[in-house]
Amino acid sequence: MGTPAHVLEHTFGFDAFRGAQQEIIDAVVAGDDALVLMPTGGGKSLCYQIPALVRPGTAIVISPLIALMMDQVEGLQQLGVKARALNSSMSGADQWAIEAAFRAGELDLLYLAPERLLQERTLRLLGEGPIALFAIDEAHCVSQWGHDFRPEYLQLATLAERFGDVPRIALTATADAPTRREIRARLNLEGAREFVASFDRPNITYRIAERRNGRQQLWQFLSSEHEGDAGIVYCLSRRAVDETAAWLAAQGVAALPYHAGLSAEERNANQARFVKEEGQVIVATIAFGMGIDKPNVRFVAHLDLPSSLEAYYQETGRAGRDGLPATAWMVYGLADVIRRRQMMDGSEAPEERKRIERRKLDDLLGFCELTSCRRRALLRYFGEEMDTDCGNCDTCLWPPTTVDATEPARMALSAIYRTGQQFGVGHVVDVLRGKSTDKVRRWCHDELAVFGLGEPTAEAEWRSFFRQLIARGLVDVDVDGYGALRLNDRCRPVLRGEESLELRRFEKAKKRARRSSGGSVGLESIDDQALFDALREKRLALAQEQGVPPYVIFHDATLREIAVTRPRDEAAFGEISGVGDKKLARYAEAFLEVIDSWDAAPAAGVIE
Ligand code: ADP
Ligand code: ZN
């Protein structure tokens, strides 16, 4: 089969390894065990797929989700690689044929779910054929503390005993140290070499704004920056999912709902459309995403706050796996903070766990209210230091202004105190603004010294201040259902005037200009973008003929390069990244035709 570099070029059509790929591949090819920690989209698959092709025998890939497995097998077959998956949904004859091919040493890769692998019958089969390596994908599933725990993963330790001389490579996008230790211990990988990549996702732009009218804001964002793009919109409740999906659909966005309350058929159908069609938007609860490998998700939008920074990183990480520009967009408000705190306090979890969750929520709130680079803060949270600001998050792109809010903060704190620490934000703001509501009169709050003291400041601005005070932990929200505000020890220095306070200045909603004139995959010229769209149409037609997702034919990055470089013949087409020998033979003609007819046509519709 040749060297790793040869396989990279001829089978995968790429001209250089990324990051630590080469080192990892060399180690596995040499027969070492490896533990690989790389973010989503970092390029983990090649780390075992290339050794699978270089080493003699079949690579056994253990993957927790059948849908993902089928996707990968499909993609490999398109490259001319002999990859198969064994699962119980296949006919007996098919399974038998695959087993026979394995015994004969005819397969490059064999994908298995852990429960299938651990059946005695399968283990015996593996003893009868040559094995190149074991790859354990999503290795964090072995962690009992993680959200994706799969008990069968624990038994994978037996591989070390039964197949001691076969190298094993475990891969995950979950990087924290405890999980890493757990993976080593439980999978018997103490001696494995460890490869930790940076967890930065430079192509994702992080943006967080105050929620005013969430749906309108979302619509504004989608229509001005991501028209026709595939993306995910996360909401907290099923009802919000249904309503948002229906609302978007009414605005002409191809949006479908996804949550645990839908029938399995409807869920599967909506997921399949997301995977197989171009430009599909899914509105979902967090149940959606795990097990979806779609590389060209151009945005992930949160209409509600996630539970922690880990969750935020994981959910936003589903955008831009292909490395092209993508947006992580979120709006959030005071109501989220209260709802999240209520959910936590109302849960049955032990006190210790609740304490940790509360702290995680506080970390996330702090992140939302940041006035400095978000990427730096996000990476620091995961233990990585950046030397400079990123230039690709909202606080870098449009630096927020801060104001000395010591005075308004003192007013707010004293209004909370004077009204007896038993009212929510709405009422306290009414008192500050001197609004004589029934409630204000009933409690005689119009007689307080703070009544009307903050009248010149708009209500929305007051709410923004309160949210920041809560996010910074100066004020507690009572989560008994009414959201009463309470002072705590941390606000004392401010109240006494011993400490000043800088807060983000409240800014009126403003329209943001698109950052580049081109489309969302970063094409600068309108003509290139139009050609990209035409290539995308051709890709969809080819995909539908074969019943496969469009991205297994070519990734967006490949189409983008075709649109920009416009190859005229096969030789030039073969130079494009992502075009290996097989795909050159199979698809060059179809795509070259699109370019030909493009050149022939007058540049109609091109607005200069
Ligand atoms: P992960 O499994 O880590 O999320 P993948 O293995 O799916 O990531 O790779 C992410 C994307 O990067 C895929 O589109 C893949 O084809 C591409 N890719 C991986 N390695 C390279 C490389 N060396 N050169 C170009 N593209 C690459
Ligand atoms: Zn930044």
Strand content: 5-15%
Helix content range = 40-55%
For the biggest sheet, the summary is:
7 strands, parallel
Number of strands: 17
How does this model look, in words?
- This protein is an alpha/beta fold and 608 residues long.
- Helix content is 45%, strand content 12%.
- It is built from 27 helices and 17 strands.
- The chain has a 7-stranded parallel β-sheet, sandwiched between helices.
- A hairpin with a 7-residue loop joins strand 15 (475-477) and strand 16.
- The longest helix is centred in the C-terminal third of the chain and has 21 residues, at 526-546.
- The structure holds adenosine-5'-diphosphate (ADP) and zinc ion.
Describe, in short, the structure shown.
With 608 residues, the chain is an alpha/beta fold. Helices cover 45% and strands 12% of the residues.
Features:
7-stranded parallel beta sheet; binds adenosine-5'-diphosphate; alpha/beta
